[in-house]
Amino acid sequence: MTLEIRRYRWSDLDTILALHRICLAEVGLMPGDGVYYDDDFPRIQEIYVACGGDFLVGEVDARVVAMGGLKPVDTCTAEICRLRVHPEHQRRGFGAAMLHALEQRAAELGFERLRGDTTLNQGAALALYERRGWRELSRQRVGDLTVVYGEKRLIPPAVIEL
Question: Of 69, 64, 65, whose CA–CA distance to 49 is shortest?
Answer without folding.
Answer: 69
